[in-house]
Write a structure and sequence with these properties.
The complex is a heterotrimer of chains A (209), B (382) and C (43).
Chain A (H helix, E strand, L loop, with lengths): L3 H9 L3 H13 L4 H23 L5 H22 L9 E6 L7 H12 L3 E4 L6 H11 L3 E5 L5 H14 L5 E5 L5 H7 L3 E3 L2 H11 L1
Parallel strand pairs in A: 1-2, 1-3, 3-4, 4-5
Chain B lengths: L2 H14 L10 E2 L3 H6 L11 H9 L1 H4 L4 E2 L8 H5 L6 E3 L6 E3 L10 H6 L1 H13 L9 H29 L6 E4 L3 H21 L1 H20 L10 E6 L7 H21 L4 E5 L7 H4 L7 E5 L4 H8 L4 E6 L1 H6 L2 H15 L5 E5 L11 H14 L3
Parallel strand pairs in B: 1-2, 5-6, 6-7, 7-8, 8-9, 9-10
Antiparallel strand pairs in B: 3-4
Helix pairs in contact in B: 9-10, 9-11, 10-11, 15-16
Chain C lengths: L8 H10 L8 H16 L1
Helix pairs in contact in C: 1-2
Classes of the chains: A alpha/beta (209), B alpha/beta (382), C mainly alpha (43).
């Protein structure tokens, strides 16, 4: 029988070998889909621990990256037992790095943490043109749009994108994130929120849905 | 005629000795922003060094800087282009230069990196990175020769650029580049995500690779010299520490980086070290930097707090965020500047500059930057 | 070396070293200069 509490703990501690061993053993017992979903939830709870430790300053970005890797591995191990079903859907986030910027690490950290928190994330990649954001927003109809960027020139692209989204009547909440993002930048861009911290960003999104 | 140059330089040297100069020195940290300020683009100056130098001098015709960090563009995009690859490229605006991360080393290749880093890079990484080197002889040699020609003129450019600014009475503080071994592995071999997982799955190998890189980094700093000058400084941009916790930093990053700092000190050199991101969890180690040795750029840390916690050991360079210079009012910027000077200037050991290098055209509002520049000299008198 | 023979990348650098005519004909000096070039290409 899988010790869910221990699984959450081990994932929170980023003990890769322990987490994967536990899950492999568990999958070998042919668990039901409901049991497998419980294991997924336990892993997600571990990710929440990771987020807390990050916010407390115990974990750093390097740990978040590894946590994202570990969660993906864990879900892959569980996949055969999961059938087709996923976890509960808290809300939809449309996510991309804005035009002119090719960076994706921050975006990907935010993505894995949002998914762990139950969001469906539609990731439209890097260097995303203004028009593409607008088209995708209309198609996906997300509650939240997340824009990422590392370069200072991304701030201009974020503003162009927000202006175009508003002009097109898109009403989703907008959050911007990345190294050059500040309160001043957020006001300039016209976003609803900003963050340089993925864990905080997820919390802001949770408060919106 | 050297009066103004010497006067400016003395402000940096005095404050770095933790004494009070006549006023707080203002350091202009910028690269491609200078080009846009001068009305040119990076691609316009590719074949015209003089135009590039002139552009880098343009801001200080109006601004009152005491020194600049970079005398010219620090990367030659064409050198890598000649080999059909590389990580640097021009942005679509033609003004700024960007870096894109590529990962050419796999996680099972550490033994080769440890055995002989340069040999491994040349024989195994270069063919993956530079398509032109895979062409049959002599086409591959011709490509390498073309790249070497770009390198030759790049080296000449670096020498001449410093002389050019000195002739215009402007000190340029950075005289060479150094790096930390861990950053080399991250930046040029395994990538960000790669190293962040390797330091858990291949901890011992990462350690050994860092050790293998120490002599190579020292050779790159020395450039054939036997001793180093105390000025201009060796510049260390440090990338990974803001993403590492103190334990990871202490075991993997610090031992070999410390070794390099103390070797540079031993050889007579001094350093400007960019503590990129937030280093407030690593001050124990900053306080173990060699004494009377380093000026550190503060990016996201609270500089007033940094003054108290590391300000006796190192000279601090920082003071204002680009975001504030770009989006706030002139009054807010100037008030902030005065507050920072009040807290950081006493006793010396402080240089006023921006938290990040000015790159894109819109990075600062010109009138704000000018007002802050003036305020530093007016309000920052000792 | 045979004109048509393929060279390893290390050999290409060796050939270039002999062509650094603007430097004194001292192996350590030329090797040192070439090291700077190699190191820059690693970046």
């Amino acid at each position: 029988m899988l010790d869910l509490k221990l699984l959450t703990e081990k994932l929170g501690e980023l003990e890769e070998d322990d987490v994967l061993d536990m899950l492999k053993e568990f999958v070998a017992t042919n668990p039901s889909e409901a049991e497998a979903l419980e294991a997924v939830a336990a892993c997600q709870a571990g990710m929440a621990t990771v987020g807390e430790l990050f916010e407390n300053g115990d974990y750093f970005v390097g740990d978040l990256i590894f946590a994202g890797e570990l969660l993906t591995e864990a879900i892959n191990v569980l996949k055969p037992a999961l059938g087709g079903s996923g976890s509960a859907n808290t809300g939809t986030i449309l996510l991309g790095t804005v035009h002119g910027d090719l960076h994706d690490i921050g975006k990907n950290i935010f993505k894995s943490m949002s998914e762990a928190a139950g969001f469906k994330v539609v990731d439209i990649g890097i260097d995303v043109e203004v028009d593409t954001f607008v088209e995708k927003a209309k198609e996906v109809n997300p509650q939240i749009i997340g824009m990422s960027g590392v370069l200072t020139l991304a701030i201009d692209s974020m503003k162009d994108t927000v202006d175009a989204l508003k002009a097109a009547g898109v009403s989703a909440k907008i959050i911007i994130g990345g190294n050059p993002v500040t309160k001043e930048a957020s006001e300039f861009v016209g976003s609803d929120a900003f963050t340089t911290n993925a864990a905080e960003g997820v919390k802001i999104c949770q408060a919106w849905v | 005629m050297d009066n103004l140059y010497q006067q400016r330089l003395n402000r940096f040297l005095t404050t770095a000795a933790h004494q009070e100069p006549d006023c707080v020195p203002f350091l202009h940290v910028a690269e491609t922003w200078n080009l846009s300020y001068a009305g040119v683009k990076a691609i316009d100056v590719e074949n015209d060094k003089h135009k590039e130098f002139e552009a880098f001098a343009k801001p200080y015709e109006v601004f009152d800087f005491d020194g600049i960090s970079m005398p010219c563009l620090s990367r030659d995009v064409n050198m890598y282009g000649a080999l059909g690859g590389g990580a640097y490229f021009y942005s679509s605006d033609g003004v700024t230069i960007q870096h894109q991360e590529y990962v050419f080393m796999k996680d099972d290749e550490y033994p080769k990196l440890i055995e002989n880093p340069i040999k491994f890079a040349i024989n195994e990484i270069f063919p993956r990175k530079f398509p032109e080197l895979n062409k049959p002889y002599p086409a591959n040699k011709e490509a390498l020769k073309k790249a070497l020609n770009f390198y030759n003129s790049y080296i000449q450019k670096m020498v001449k650029a410093g002389e050019f600014h000195a002739s215009k009475q402007m000190p340029c503080l950075m005289g060479g580049i150094g790096q930390a071994p861990f950053d080399i592995i991250m930046d040029y071999f395994r990538g960000f995500k790669g190293i962040m997982t390797d330091m858990r799955r291949h901890k011992q190998e990462v350690k050994e690779a860092c050790e293998a890189l120490v002599p190579i980094i020292m050779a790159s700093i020395l450039q054939g010299r036997e001793k180093l000058d105390a000025y201009p400084y060796v510049f260390f941009p440090l990338h990974a520490p803001t993403f590492l916790n103190a334990k990871q930093f202490e075991t993997l990053y610090w031992p070999t980086f410390r070794e390099i700092l103390y070797q540079v000190k031993e050889l007579g050199g001094k350093a400007m070290i960019a503590l990129e991101g937030d280093w407030s969890h690593l001050y124990t180690f900053v306080n173990d930097f060699p004494e009377e040795f380093a000026t550190v750029f503060i990016e996201k840390d609270d500089i007033i707090k940094a003054k108290k916690e590391i300000g006796d050991r190192v000279t601090l360079a920082g003071g204002i965020e680009l975001g504030m210079l770009r989006s706030s009012s002139k009054e807010v910027c100037v008030d902030h500047t005065k507050k920072i000077i009040d807290h950081c200037a006493p006793g010396g050991g402080f240089i006023f500059t921006t938290d990040k290098s000015l790159l894109a055209p819109g990075d600062v509002k010109i009138e704000n930057y000018l007002a802050v520049n003036q305020a530093v000299h007016k309000y920052g008198k000792y | 070396m045979d004109e048509n023979k393929e060279r390893s990348i290390e050999e290409l650098f060796e050939e270039l070293k002999d062509e650094l005519v603007f430097l004194p004909e001292i192996d350590a000096v030329r090797a040192g200069y070439l090291f700077g070039f190699k190191y820059t290409l690693i970046q």
